[in-house]
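Quick log. Single chain, no ligands specified.
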Amino acid sequence: MYINIVAGGPEEHLPDLAEFNDHSIWVGVDKGVLRLISHGIEPAYAFGDFDSVTDEEWTMIRSKVKNIQTFRAEKDEPDMELAINWALEQCAEKIRIFAGTGGRLDHFLGNVQLMLRPLLNHVNAAIEIIDKKNIIFAKGPGSYRIEKDEQKKYISFIPFLSAVSGLTLTGFKYPLNDRHIPLTSTLCISNELIDDNGTFSFTKGILLVIRSND
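-> predicted structure:
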């Protein structure tokens, strides 16, 4: 099961949501509910304090969404975290976050932190942050196959929280073999696949993988 969560970030950073309408469950977070409705997608669930919507918009949301979970504006968890917690409770195989970039940096960095939750808690789920130019996801130690995508040909590997040990890249324009990547390194930004697919592997640490277009 895939769960797609749409936040309230800038509209101009949204990809074509129709490309991801693959029998996924759609969830709106606060103004993200209005984003979905404007794109012709009826959210299955809505989360938020909805303090940023007008009375008219709130009336529309209540008429379009059957399952709405409202919260006080003064709370410990942001709306996105509440939606992510719910999605993980549903045992989603993949959670995709849209409209989570391009706006407030604190919200974006918070979304990156939330993306690590399954990995750090050994939960069998993947979280991606997707916008018009990028796909971001996190990986723990292991070996992974990655396929070429001409729409997002640049691939960056960024150590997160700590250094990464034993990074090996095969099938890439700039290969690596058993390389130690310190936390502050930008060595692995803007690589490209030269084959139809390649592999990346490492033995210790957490990698943020970012696929980008021009």
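The chain has a mean pLDDT of 90.
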